[in-house]
Records
---
Amino acid sequence: MTAQVIDGKAIAATMRAELKAEVETLKDRGIVPGLGLILVGDDAASQSYVRAKERACEEAGIYSDDNRLAADTSQDELMGLVERMNGDPKIHGILVQLPLPKQINEAEVLLAIDPAKDVDGFHPVSVGRMVLGQAGFLPCTPHGVVQLLLRSGVTIEGAHVVIVGRSNIVGKPLANMLIQKKEGANATVTVCHTRTKDLARHTRQADIVIAAAGRPNTVTADMIKDGAVVIDVGVNRVEDATKKKGYRLAGDVDFEAVREKASLITPVPGGVGPMTITMLLYNTVESAKMAAGML
């Protein structure tokens, strides 16, 4: 068996086309979804992420309020900007690019964002709503994983899902989303982590394995049962002298070997990655509709 590769770029492109059409309909009603972006400092990876988000907003027709702040920006200055965006009716979503410089208290900044504009889904109010199964913003990467599964025809209901990783950004929220008693969920979920004994014993029982450990080759072929669906959330830099940059990107899964046992598998790059920004756009559009009383 050789797995079918889930094309995250194609699925993301389809969703972005849907969102663009929805934005055009909203504009006909005088509603322009707006996203406020805040980048503090000159971290290269963060700059790249923000540029990609800016381009995605432009392509979708979403208004983007971009703010680039110096690395020595104070806590008060950043909090003031967040507060301004909270009160700006043109801004429906606020995204503060992480990580922040050491002098900034990240938790305090995230807490200051109006939950009605928390399109990253990190505010405690958003997390609480997610856990309780209430309407609210879902964190972008986990929500992207769910969309990849559903749009690839994978049946989640009744499936045994093993998540390798327990981060607040991916593992924990994804587990909460998949166990909800609703359509597109209803899975039985096992969460594994660095203290899990005999990890392979758990993953071999899974219908769906989601690797989000942040370590290359954490999931190998002997850890997967025949026909399992494998979603690789990991993005790791692996030294590679044959590459111009001296490294290549690799996931948490031994792709080539696992592909020979799985039924469906995501590549890195080109799998989960494109979905994260797509779900950010989705949340921003949903926020604009909520602000207009359409939801």
Note: The chain has a mean pLDDT of 96.
---
Amino acid sequence: MKKFLAVMTLIALIFGGAQAAPEGRMPASELMHLDRAPQGEVAQPLQTLTSENSGLNPGYSVTPIQNTRPVDPNDVLPNVTATSAIVIEASTGHVLYERNADARMFPASTTKMMTLITALESKPLDDIVTVGPGAYNAEGSTLWLDVNEKIPLGELLYGMMLISGNDGAIAIAEHVDGTVANFAEHMTRRAHELGAVNTNFTNANGLPDSNHYTTARDLAIMTKHGFSLPNFETICSAKEVSFPWIHDDTKLYRNENQMLWLYRGANGVKTGYTEAAGRCLISAAKQNGVQLIAVVLDSLYIWNDSIMLLDYGFGRVSSQTLIKSGDVVKTLPIISGRRKSMPVKTAGEIVMPVFAGDDNAYDIVYDLPNELSAPITAGETIGKIRVTLPDGREAASVDVVTTADVEQKSFFRLLLDKIKSLFA
């Protein structure tokens, strides 16, 4: 049955006339109809968004649709159609916009973002996953995995995130924690540790379950943590990947997240859809050193909504360089060295967001020793500069390093210095 469905899917693609995208761009035939209202809705087009008046990439334009759903009269983005939405700045967690952000919602396949986080924190990417019967019999979107197929975990994570393979999510869950139920408990526990306390997972892929729920705010919190992990952004922002085990002649997966093509600096994260959840999207973009995360749940137009949310967010935040790379922090005395002191410098920069109309106070904390002891190697880390938020949370840090090699004094010189100090 599974092979028959694969053949039928291939036939549909052939007769659907899909076109290859030149130079990695998304062909217009693959873009959803952003200006078409759902059946029964009366929608009016608004001002067309382009790269001149929006964060859209050159060559793309989108005509947003007037929202037909009721919203609060004080809502600054009334034409965002999502039932629940939020935009945050990632380094601080600062909320730039929210609507019903704490309402309990079904996450659909945005669940897989937390599946990715849990897997990245649990196992190395080169772990070999053996596909079991549970993955083979998965419902919904699929990677067409076969029982006993052996695939590196990292490659399965790409498949799960790019084309939302439910079978991949199950295989990953069973590999990490033995069963999907155990993995879902692991996901929930980790989400609560991160502060996403209004979330409960019962599976790894987001298929409907009355006890499988989250909020827009919680998804933003989890995604914020994800961007701090190695490989998270690389996987979430990949437009295409190719692996020899892919069960298709192209051996290619193409990301379903159209924001990666549409929006300037887009770097994630995950789409989702079920009838119970509606259209869902966690999107992310980085511009001028500022990383934003936007979440829309139960949206009529996920791309339109996400573009408007990110545009609004970037319009309310800019960046400020607090620490420059290579800046001399101070000069420290050297004990037992062939020179008396040395300047120490920063090994990188710290760029922090500045929010329009809000308190932008940051504290800079210098964690440095009072002195250095020879021998010393140039480039050796001897401390940190940390930027903290008003509530004490650390938002960023940079290493402070030495600037030169310093040899230790000879035993005779150290002895002579000691004698001199006795008669001083």
Note: The first strand starts at residue 84 and ends at 89.
---
Amino acid sequence: MKVQNYKSEWLFIFLYLEMQPTGTSHETFPSTTIQLKRSLGLLTSVLLVAGIMIGSGAFKKIVPMSQQLGTENYILLAWICAGIITMIGAFTYAGLATSTNRTGGIYEYLRLAFGDFVSFLFGWSFFSIAGSGAIAALAFIFSQSVHTLITFPEPFISLRDWSIGHFIFPFADSGIKLFAISIVALLTWLNCRGLKPGAVLNNIVTIAKISGILLLMIAGFLYTKPPVQEVPAAPTIVSDSSFVSSLLAAMLSALWAYDGWANITFITGEIKNPQRNLPFAIIGGVCIATLLYVLVNYSFLQVLSPAQLSATAQNEIAGVRVAGIIMGKTGMVIISVLIMTCTFGAVNACIMVYPRLYYRMAQEQRFFKNAAAIHPSFLTPHIALIWSGLWSCLLIISGTFDLLTNLVVFSSYIFFGLTGWGLIKLKRKGMITAKVIGYPVTPVLFILFSLSLIINTLITEPKQSLTGLLLVFSGLPFYWYFKKTETKNK
């Protein structure tokens, strides 16, 4: 069957997944006539960074942070410190972005600095956990939010207690999972049909998210607390060592909310003048998200004390509770719709950019070779999008996304630290000649923080950390397989 007769319908894509011929972009194979198109401008790129970052974390993470720190000033300090670290990372990646105009971003930076093995481990960990796990978690949270307004039937309720190893319950919450899967399928199909439809949707949703958060923030600032409030005393940090550990643990929660700022680099090959626009996009998007996160959480603390936030029920979202106090049931509905908008936009943005990484890996023969295909009409890496959608749906079914979201930051900062070191290496080799903001202080600080976060997480959450490391190194058999296949082809 010819590629030109390829249908866009989701099921048809899956039926013909292996029948598609492998295409490439001009980045590696100049002879091909099928190329990725540079169509994203600066404004869209900035909104894409903000769209990936602004998800459910802005409304949820203040609860565990209140439990860990206990006072308003320390909570805001954790948000500000996490924002500063993210901005330092943004400066580091802005410098790295000047080293190449190829698709792949972080994968490409690691490949240039450390070679194929390290870059593959990053790409594989992103496919197996960080990227696909984030898509699965965000889609599930979006589905949960919709479920609070529209109750989904559970078609497999009789099998909800059936498990695999008493760990994976594929039929539990089947209605929510099926809706989440349908959202991933729909957005994957939309992004298969071209970069522009997904980018336009992201711009609209991101502007709506920012507007909604600003309204909630203003409502919090204008809220007047009752004159008499009796609340339990907030916990006290008793020593410097416990404070540092608690602050890092709270920052881990905040960094999940900030997560995603570097992922626009995966789509470098489709950004106009990327060596100029990409640094501005990263720094601009991080500035928007940081300002919104600090201010909206400050507004939450004007309505509820840290002790009250600490007592929030496990499945209750702090932002919904705050809106309910300010505006009653109407406010709870409004904030639920806002959270739905934020998570929906984040899912779309992640689905748009993450598969570009797998596409680049396939070009380098470090992923399933058909993922290097480019659709001749829509000019998208459609097979890579399908691989991403399939694995994300499997993670949704598994029901292990809560664990995965806890692992995303840990696994990401292993490679973030390496990219800081990579910037220094590439700068010394003369492969990066552009001026880097704060160099060499910023990459050194980024490396030191990454090491501190990794060590603290290994000490405080050993099982979680070892699971993350295991998933990262689960790519070893695949690396040997792809390496063997490459040698055989040569």
Note: The first helix runs from residue 10 to 15.
